[in-house]
Amino acid sequence: MAAIGDSITRAFDACSVLSDCPEVSWATGTDPKVPSLAQQLAAEESWNLAESGAQASDLPSQARAVTAHEPELVTIMVGANDACAPDVALMTETEDFRADIERAVEIIRESLPDTQLYVASVPDLLRLWSEGSGSALARTVWGVAAVCPSMLADPVAVTTEAGERRDSVRERVVEYNAVLESVCAADVLCRYDGGAVFDYAFTPDDLSKWDWFHPSAQGQAALAALAHERITME
User: Which of 2, 59, 118, 195 holds its CA 20 to 30 A away from the CA of 176?
Assistant: First the structure.
């Protein structure tokens, strides 16, 4: 199997600060302490071609790279960085997001007509803000590192403007997930997670202790469990 997408699939900040930790990736991880999807499916080989910082526009190039490995299953998780812009006005437009996802699937299908696809929903960024905003340390890290500013800037602000900004980001994520579901539904060998990642109630223990945003090793294990449940569902 192979995985494409962004920093969540690279397990960024899951093991150490400001670094990828693919060995605990929910998709292709090899650490037995985090039973990845690849481990649970007993995949003979796995490739993690996701890139930290990737947006939907990067997915077609990742799709081209993945075809060389001829995997039986490709997992896709992308969209958080499209919503996590410096400002809500700079979030990826939903139409552009759709075009990039459709193109990535087309590229895979052109070379791999029999490969299964698993598409994960984008996490609920508003829920992540809610979980971390009560922590002074989390708020400091978000500010210093400029973590997802469209959602996490001024995390304690309770003004109407701040609320509308956060709601706008959440609405865009909902739109992205509708696109992912729609594109996946048009492909007979694609399975969408049914919004499982979006609906998952991340706890502080599920989040990186370095940025209170990316999944920790425990959070990666939770994502793997969600994926396995959905993929093996009748």
Answer: 2
